[in-house]
Write a structure and sequence with these properties.
656 residues; Rossmann fold; alpha/beta; 7-stranded mixed β-sheet; 21 helices; GMP Synthetase, Chain A, domain 3; 34% helix; 5-stranded parallel β-sheet
């Protein structure tokens, strides 16, 4: 592993923050960052108590951190807080009700500006509508929405009344909804008739209906009218959002909930077929997202226009569209549709129109923009931008340089952020006025984050020694458990170096300056366009097809998506391997999981490489699809001819 990590990059370009940027930044120098970070590690509880003091608490906490039952943490013990109150009410009460919270852009071109006062009123009305249908604190509510302001309203309304939201990305299939409903035992769903994507309507309500045909625990479905597409409404279960809120009261007091009250469950892929329900609680999570948003995006509430291009169905949308920005009283852009509809300049048109100052997107999008051509960027004035960010996967240096020079005009610092669904917030990133940046590195840990690289024996690695990324101290937004599965929580994240060392599952190294270089996953989890995808999930979907006997899925480098999905499939006896069947299997995976999981390549194989005990040697398949020689240890391989056959098949498929 270490050889791979050491050979990934040899990058020596360094970009210091401009004097002007540093002079106006929250943290103004590397020395100030290092002093703050040192203090935050030496007095972690004191530091986080200060940060939590920026929020409104209804009852003060008795203890900042209870780590006595590690790895199960409790933060701000005894404190009571309401997330929606901190994101909405306190800004209105401070006289900022007329401030724009969301500049919303629909894909067809419709727009809305929503103020904090309007957002608060909408949230209170919808919260009361939920209560009138019997939804109360602790109930799980699944949200499956397009990127419209009501998606944020739905989340904040749940938080206001203490319901636990579980947002599902609108690109996921009905079966993915069933899996998440079943695990969370949700009793209500919030959805829309449809959402716009590349000029077409995504049939959200129909997908919900298909899911509820297989899951009968849902008593209430709220449906927002967005696309005016035909939908079926079931009496006694389905209710139109606008009808339910028309006469609802705009008075819904924000009840204080325990700091450890569950805020949301968000499902993420694991190395087994079953997605993991990551549980985040309220007080620590809000403290951390509030703090990271302020410092990492160097946010200035009076002048910045912020735009994160993620979907609320991912953790980035939770932490850096809803909770972090709104806790800071930010004005932000929200866009419903695809980045290339009707053309590849859509994002830049929006940046220019709203004079966006802070732009946060994924390396996948950046690589796609590069391929589309600079002429789409050149049409628009991007001079309002002062800070750029990336999220979801490591960014290759040349894409970083294009982003800096072409989008940022050479003047904007780039915050390359490393974090996970599990961490709740950004863990490693430049503090833009303080830390010199290098293309391809997330640079340094955030305040209070004690990150390190460990070798197999649990010893810290030296500079440029590849190892496993770990976090040695608890942090406020850390996942509290895997929902209903504490043993899997311990086994997945705390099993290797003791129950106080968090294992991120990523390979990494540090350089001589202390910068962290993230290489990628060490387990069977792919990073496709910034979205985590378990190979076991795709394999399970393929094997569920009547014609498939066995499958093995691996990732291979992809110039746009970072990683592509390659599936090796063994068919049942008597089934013919045809191009039509490949197409059918791709669509089957799309139906079972969602379009992002569709394999880029399907290879039919009579046999798969297995050990004599019958275990598929995916490591050899990874070497085959990486395009190089198969050099790994094959001493335990049962049939040595199979590797050569598969390599020949793959090379033929790629070059055909």
């Amino acid at each position: 592993m270490s050889n791979n990590i050491e050979s990934v990059l040899s990058e020596d370009r360094v970009f210091d923050p401009s004097e002007e940027f540093s002079a106006n930044a929250h943290v103004k120098s590397l020395e100030e960052y290092e002093a703050l970070h040192k203090r935050s590690i030496e007095d972690t509880e004191g530091f986080w108590a200060e940060q939590a003091g920026d929020l409104k608490w209804q009852d003060q906490w008795d203890q900042v951190l209870d780590w006595s039952d590690a790895p199960f943490a409790k933060w701000f013990v005894g404190g009571k807080i309401n997330a929606a109150e901190n994101c909405l009410d306190r800004h209105v009460e401070a006289g900022n009700g007329d401030k724009i919270a969301i500049h919303w852009v629909g894909e067809p071109g419709d727009t809305r500006d929503v103020t904090y006062a309007e957002l608060l009123e909408d949230t209170c009305k919808f919260a009361n509508a939920m209560k009138s249908r019997g939804i109360s604190a602790g109930d799980r509510v699944l949200i499956y929405m397009p990127m419209v302001p009501e998606a944020a309203v739905a989340m904040l309304a749940c938080a206001r009344i203490g319901a636990v939201h579980s947002v599902v990305f609108g690109g996921f299939s009905a079966q993915s909804i069933v899996d998440r409903l079943g695990d969370s035992e949700a009793t209500a769903v919030i959805t829309a008739d449809g959402g716009w994507r590349r000029g077409g309507v995504v049939p959200l309500k129909k997908n919900v209906d298909d899911a509820l045909a297989k899951y009968d625990g849902v008593k209430t479905v709220f449906v927002l009218k967005r696309c005016e597409n035909d939908v079926e409404m079931q009496d006694g279960r389905d209710y139109w959002w606008y009808e339910e809120t028309a006469d609802a009261s705009a008075d819904c007091p924000a009840e204080g909930f325990d700091a450890e009250h569950p805020l949301y469950i968000l499902y993420t892929s694991g190395s087994t077929g079953k997605p993991k329900g990551i549980l985040h609680t309220t007080g620590g999570y809000l403290t951390y997202t509030n703090s990271t948003f302020k410092y990492i995006f160097d946010h200035k509430p009076d002048s910045d226009i912020y735009w994160c291009t993620a979907d609320v169905g991912w953790v980035t949308g939770h932490s850096y569209i809803v909770y972090g920005p709104m806790a800071n009283g930010a004005t932000q852009v929200m866009y419903e549709g695809a980045p290339n509809f009707p053309d590849w300049d859509r994002f830049w048109e929006i940046v220019a129109k709203y004079k966006v100052t802070t732009f946060y997107t994924a390396p996948t999008a950046i690589r796609a923009f590069i391929k589309a051509g600079d002429e789409h960027v050149d049409k628009h004035d991007l001079s309002s931008l002062r800070l750029l960010g990336t999220v979801g996967e490591p960014i290759n240096p040349e894409a970083w340089m294009w982003y800096r020079d072409k989008i940022g005009g050479g003047r904007c610092p780039i915050v390359d952020t490393w974090w996970q669904t599990e961490t709740g917030g950004i863990m490693i990133s430049p503090i833009p006025g303080a830390i010199p940046t290098k293309p391809g590195t997330a640079t340094r840990p955030f305040f209070g984050i004690d990150a390190a690289i460990f070798d197999e024996s649990g010893n810290p690695c030296g500079p440029n020694e590849g190892g496993k990324l770990v976090i040695r101290k608890p942090w406020p937004s850390m996942l509290r458990t895997i929902y209903k599965d504490p043993e899997r929580f311990k086994e997945t994240y705390w099993n290797e170096y003791g129950d106080t060392i968090y294992i991120a599952g990523d390979g990494a190294r540090t350089d001589a300056d202390g910068n962290f270089w993230i290489v990628g996953r060490l387990d069977d989890v792919l990073n496709v366009s910034g979205h985590r995808l378990g190979t076991a999930e795709v394999e399970s979907a393929l094997v569920s097809h009547d014609d498939v006997a066995e499958s093995a899925v691996v990732g291979r480098p992809h110039e746009i998506k970072g990683q592509g999905v390659v599936a090796f499939v063994t068919l049942k006896g008597g089934v013919d391997a045809t191009d039509d069947l490949k197409k059918e299997l791709r669509n089957h995976v799309g139906t079972e999981i969602g379009a992002i999981a569709k394999p880029d390549e399907i290879l039919f194989a009579d046999r798969l490489p297995k050990t004599r005990s019958g275990k598929i040697m995916r490591r050899l398949l990874k070497e085959i699809v990486a395009g190089g020689e198969v050099k790994g240890d094959t001493t335990t391989l049962e049939d040595h001819e199979v590797v050569a056959q598969l390599k020949e098949e793959f090379d033929k498929a790629v070059h055909s």
